[in-house]
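Project outcomes to date are best conveyed with an example. Our students and postdoctoral researchers have been running inverse folding experiments weekly, and each run begins with a structure described purely in tokens. The record below, which covers 232 residues, was selected by the lab manager from last quarter's runs and is presented without edits.
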């Protein structure tokens, strides 16, 4: 069995660009859009793309800038940066975070591939602040006010509350939109399909290609132009 099919094996992924690198390289998706013709997508794929909600880089930046609470800021930042599903986020434990070596162990679900991700400087800062403020014995990385692990509905409430507060449409203020967003942003920045596949934990490349097809479908639209020109 190959290493790619062994979901229990941990893999350190380091090839994630910074926000500024994303914005500087967004025009690279022009060639990507040309190489993945959306007209060749089946109806099921097209329908899935139309149901896909995601935010622009500027919207993510505005969202994060509005969150003062360390726990909520860390929660939204990690959910976005590491493309976490709600259950993956709620299942995170303090022991999964290694601040000394700047890594976090991501345990994927739904047949996706688990791995270790490198933490960026802003993640290390907010996690250090948040964990330094904790005075409870809860093993969960994100604890509720009752000092138990945060629940799914609470994660939805956190993302929705801050998203609506900064003027984002309610239908895009949900945790899975953050997961979609990082895949779209990385591909728009010219990061390879294989690298994004590893980052998202996709077991097959088709799951990653759908994001590239979404970029191709939106090319020429208002959203597509925003991504391609960096006017976000």
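After processing, the design step wrote out the following sequence:
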């Amino acid at each position: 069995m190959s290493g790619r099919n062994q979901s229990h094996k941990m893999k350190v992924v380091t090839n994630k660009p910074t926000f500024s690198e994303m914005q500087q390289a967004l025009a690279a998706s022009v060639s990507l859009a040309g190489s993945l013709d959306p007209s060749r997508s089946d109806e099921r794929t097209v329908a899935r793309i139309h149901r896909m909600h995601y935010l622009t880089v500027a919207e993510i930046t505005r969202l994060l800038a509005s969150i003062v609470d360390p726990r909520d800021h860390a929660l939204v930042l990690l959910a976005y940066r590491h493309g976490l599903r709600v259950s993956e986020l709620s299942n995170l434990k303090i022991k999964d975070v290694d601040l000394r070596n700047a890594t976090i162990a991501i345990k994927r679900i739904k047949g996706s591939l688990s791995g270790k991700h490198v933490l960026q400087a802003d993640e290390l800062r907010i996690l250090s602040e948040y964990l330094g403020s904790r005075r409870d014995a809860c093993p969960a990385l994100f604890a509720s006010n009752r000092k138990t692990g945060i629940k799914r509905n609470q994660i939805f409430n956190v993302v929705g509350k801050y998203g609506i507060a900064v003027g984002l449409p309610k239908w895009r203020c949900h945790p899975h939109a953050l997961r979609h967003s990082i895949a779209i942003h990385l591909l728009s920045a010219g990061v390879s399909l294989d690298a994004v596949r590893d980052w998202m934990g996709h077991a097959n490349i088709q799951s990653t290609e759908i994001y590239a097809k979404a970029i191709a479908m939106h090319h020429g639209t208002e959203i597509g132009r925003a991504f391609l020109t960096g006017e976000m």
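The chain is about 50% helix and 5% strand. The beta strands are 12-13, 97-98, 103-106, 115-118. The training component of this project remains on track.
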